[in-house]
Write a structure and sequence with these properties.
By secondary structure, the protein is of the alpha/beta class. It is about 40% helix and about 10% strand. The protein has two domains: about 325 residues, TIM Barrel; about 40 residues, no CATH class. It starts with 15 loop residues before the first helix and ends in an 8-residue tail after the last helix.
Length: about 375
C-alpha cells in the first residue's frame, strides 16, 4: 500500500531537477527546493502524526510530507563483506555488540538513538589492517561490480528529479573503524597505515565512479565525512590538507570530466578550519550544516561567496523553542534563499523533543516564505 501524503506538494513551474540545479547554480527558480534531512527513530514512536498514519522511517516520511524528490546512487565502496553483527553480552539496560565495522560497542537495550560507547576496534596495529584489508577491502572483489542495467531502470534518462553519485568517505569511515581515540593515536603512531587506509578508500570510490559515470547524467555528487565536532576537526587541518585533500582532487577530476560541479559532503560540527581544503579539493557544498557546532549559514556564505553552497542550516534548537523562535530564524535565512546556493532544512535529524505541532508550523512557514512566493523566471 502506498503512502498517502498529508500535505500538497509545493506549487511550482519547474521540475524538481530543474529547480535543484538552478538553485545550486544561483540561477532563477520558481520556488525553493523543498526537502528535509529526516527524524530520530523516536519521532516515529512518539509523534502522533507518524503513529496514526503508520509512518515508520524517513523514506516514508519524505513521501508523507510530499517533499521534492532527490536520489543518490552508490557503489559498494566500503568493507565487503562487513563483519557479522552479533550480541556479545547483555545487561539490564544495555547490550555489548560487534557491529558491521568490527567494533565492540555498548548500545542501549531499548535501541533509542544515541552514539554507541565504543570499547575496542578490530584494527589497532598495521598487521591488523593488513589482514582486514586483504579480507574485506579488495578493489577487485566481484561483489563491487554494479548492475548498471538495474540502476538505469530505477533512474531513467527522462527523470524529473536530481540524481547524485555518492563519493563516500576518505577519513570519516576510517574514524568509524578505528574509533575517535584510535584515529587520533594512529595518525601519529602509524601514519603509513592510516594513509594506506585513505588511499584504499579513494581507490574504492574511483572504481565505483568509473563504473557509474559513463551511464548516467548526474546532477551532483555526495559524500560523508563526519570528522568535526563543536571544537573543530578531529584530525589536524595540516594533515587533512596533505593526506585527504589530494584524494579529493583525484575524485574531482573524474566528476568534472562528466560535468558534475556540485559536490556536497555530510559533516557535522565546526568545519571552518578545514573548509579551504574541502573547497580546494572539490567539495563546494556543506550538509546538513549544524548551526550550534559551527555558525549561522550567513557567516560562511558571505565569507566564501558563490564558491560555497549550503544545504541545511536551520537551527534545530530554534524548532524546540517554539513558533516565535521559528519565525525569527526563518526570517534570518530568507535573504540566503533569495540569493541562491542555499537550500534550508533542519540542521540534522529533527529530534523528538521538538513538538510535532511546532514542526508542522515550521513546514507551513517554510512554504509561506519560500514556496508560495514565486521568483521571477528570466
Amino acid at each position: 500500500m502506498g503512502i498517502k501524503p498529508i500535505r500538497s506538494k509545493w506549487k511550482g513551474r519547474m521540475s524538481d531537477r530543474e529547480r535543484f540545479n538552478n538553485q545550486m547554480h544561483y540561477k532563477p527558480i520558481d520556488r525553493c527546493f523543498n526537502m528535509e534531512f529526516g527524524y530520530w527513530d523516536e519521532n516515529f514512536t512518539s509523534w502522533n502524526i507518524f503513529k496514526d498514519n503508520n509512518i515508520t522511517n524517513n523514506e516514508q516520511a519524505d513521501l508523507f510530507f510530499n517533499f521534492d524528490t532527490i536520489h543518490t546512487i552508490s557503489g559498494n565502496i566500503w568493507m565487503n563483506p562487513p563483519f557479522e553483527e552479533r550480541v556479545v553480552s547483555e545487561s539490564e539496560t544495555s547490550k555489548t555488540i560487534i557491529n558491521a565495522d568490527g567494533l565492540t560497542a555498548e548500545v542501549p537495550k531499548d535501541s533509542h538513538d544515541t552514539i554507541p560507547h565504543f570499547l575496542t576496534s578490530s584494527i589497532t596495529t598495521p598487521d591488523d589492517w593488513k589482514k582486514i584489508k586483504k579480507e574485506r577491502f579488495r578493489i577487485d572483489d566481484p561483489g563491487r561490480i554494479l548492475d548498471i542495467g538495474k540502476l538505469k531502470a530505477m533512474h531513467p534518462e527522462n527523470r524529473d528529479y536530481p540524481l547524485g553519485i555518492h563519493c563516500g568517505s576518505m577519513i570519516g569511515k576510517i574514524r568509524d573503524m578505528l574509533t575517535f581515540e584510535g584515529l587520533c593515536y594512529a595518525i601519529y603512531d602509524y601514519p603509513e597505515m592510516v594513509e594506506d587506509m585513505v588511499e584504499t578508500c579513494c581507490q574504492l570510490v574511483e572504481s565505483s565512479l568509473d563504473q557509474l559515470l559513463p551511464h548516467f547524467d548526474f546532477d551532483f555528487a555526495s559524500g560523508w565525512e563526519d570528522i568535526c565536532f563543536k571544537n573543530g576537526p578531529i584530525v589536524p587541518p595540516e594533515y587533512f590538507k596533505n593526506v585527504i585533500m589530494p584524494r579529493y582532487k583525484r575524485i574531482k577530476a573524474k566528476l568534472v570530466k562528466y560535468g558534475i560541479d556540485i559536490w556536497y559532503t555530510d559533516c557535522d560540527g565546526d568545519v571552518r578550519p578545514i573548509l579551504p581544503y574541502l573547497l580546494e579539493g572539490g567539495i563546494n557544498c556543506l550538509f546538513p550544516f549544524e548551526v550550534n557546532g559551527c555558525s549561522h549559514p550567513k557567516e560562511l556564505l558571505e565569507e566564501y561567496g558563490k564558491d560555497l553552497r549550503i544545504m541545511g542550516g536551520v537551527d534545530k534548537m530554534k524548532l524546540k523553542e517554539g513558533r516565535d523562535a521559528i519565525d525569527r530564524y526563518l526570517d534570518s535565512i530568507a535573504p540566503l534563499v533569495e540569493r541562491g546556493g542555499y537550500i534550508p532544512f533542519c540542521d540534522h535529524r529533527c529530534p523528538p523533543d521538538v513538538k510535532e505541532d511546532d514542526y508542522l508550523y515550521y513546514l507551513d512557514m517554510k512554504e509561506k516564505l519560500f514556496g508560495f512566493r514565486f521568483y521571477t523566471l528570466s
